[in-house]
Amino acid sequence: MKYYVIAGEPSGDLHGGKLLRGIREEDAEATFRFCGGDRMAEVAGSDAMLYHYTEMSFFGFVQVAMNLRTIFGQIDSVKADISRFNPDVVILIDYPAFNLRIAKWAKAQGIKVYYYIAPKVWAWKERRVKSIRKYVDRLYTIFPFESDYFRSHGIEPHFFGNPLVDDIAERKPSLPTREEFCKEWGLDERPIVSLLAGSRVSEIKANLADMVAIARQLPEKQFVVTAVPWIDRALYDSIIGDSGVKYVCNSTQQALSLSEAAIVTSGTATLETALMGIPEVVLYHVPLLYEKLKPYFLRIPYISLVNINLNRESVKELVCANLDIAKATEELRSILKGGSQRERMLNDFAELAQMMGGDGASRRFAKDIVNSLNR
Questions:
Q1: What secondary structure, in 3-state letters, does 213-261 show?
Q2: Where do the H-state alpha helices sit in 86-162?
């Protein structure tokens, strides 16, 4: 069968690559066309890619507004590419502002539409539920609490675990020793604390300076920023300055595996850190206006996937325009070795891991996709 897959962000590419691999194991005749990234290209080939996610990822109202012509042009190009490819199914991975437009169009063309990794409509923009109900033939969720939510809105979701568990399990055997990692990146013997500042330029500009300010308060620890390769190192260096924070690129899980704790920007990284058993503080710098208006448009009390899934404050969320550095430093101290909150948090993370299911989620999702299409 022929599969057209669209992912517009790094995490979508990560999960999409595993899904494509699982589909190919279930369907030896599978042919792919996609928008995504390097992980998906490893399975389908780079010549099967229309757009790389780095061309598609616009974050925040200002970026989107400034690039509307580009975005609508990409939507038109994707539609034309789907028509030429004539797939059996279009599989959409998160990225709802773009993908729900494609869903509406594809449904009108009589093409099956599957949505893998449901949009987080339970947090914001709940109006998108109507589009999912109307234009999506099969919805796949990766968090157990989503099942009741979507059923209450007339949609029957399909949950087979969380593919991030697969990624962590696959990488674990190849993770470096501390000696190897420190030699590669020029680190010393001090305990490591990882700084995960986001995967977009806007996030790094917003969050890394506060993280560096905290790092300056704890010279007995060795702080590393886990950089992403598609962002120029000069941006990181301009914020790190003379703080002593080390730059580590394209090695997030490697750094986390050797870390005593982490400071993490909200997103998939909060869940990844927890599933690796690394205590964390969540930090997200927001404009003052957002801080004031947050209670009025955010439908849930938390922003981290750890707290959302556990339905309680397991990790501290510092979401504000003006961070109290002293308070933030104390929150970090509380989860370092010997800290008052460390063991409690690690027990919470063990509970979370049970909720997410065991290895093999990507293969289970792929098997259901192929079987449902064959039916």
A1: HHHCCCCCCEEEEEECCCCCHHHHHHHHCCCCCEEEECCHHHHHHCEEE
A2: 96-108, 128-135, 146-152
Q: Which helix (H) or strand (E) segment is 181 a member of? A: helix 178-185
pTM confidence score: 0.85
Please give the Cα distance from 15 to 276 (Å, whole number). 17
Q: H or E stretch including 158? A: strand 157-159
Strand order in the sheet with 280-285: 246-249, 222-227, 192-196, 259-264, 280-285, 317-320
d(CA 341, CA 106): 49
Q: Is the dihedral of CA 54, 60, 62, 67 positive or negative?
A: positive
d(CA 87, CA 90): 7
CA separation for the pair 255, 274 (Å, rounded): 14
Structural contact between residues 58 and 71, judged by C-beta atoms closer than 8 angstroms: yes
pLDDT in tens, the chain (375 residues): 999 999 998 889 989 999 999 999 999 999 999 999 999 999 999 999 999 998 876 555 556 656 667 777 889 999 999 999 999 999 999 989 899 999 999 999 999 999 999 998 887 788 899 999 999 999 999 999 999 999 999 999 999 999 999 989 989 999 999 999 999 999 999 999 999 999 888 899 999 999 999 999 999 999 999 999 989 999 999 999 999 999 999 999 999 999 999 999 978 899 999 999 999 999 998 766 655 555 555 667 888 999 999 999 999 999 888 999 999 999 999 999 999 999 999 999 999 999 998 889 999 999 999 999 998
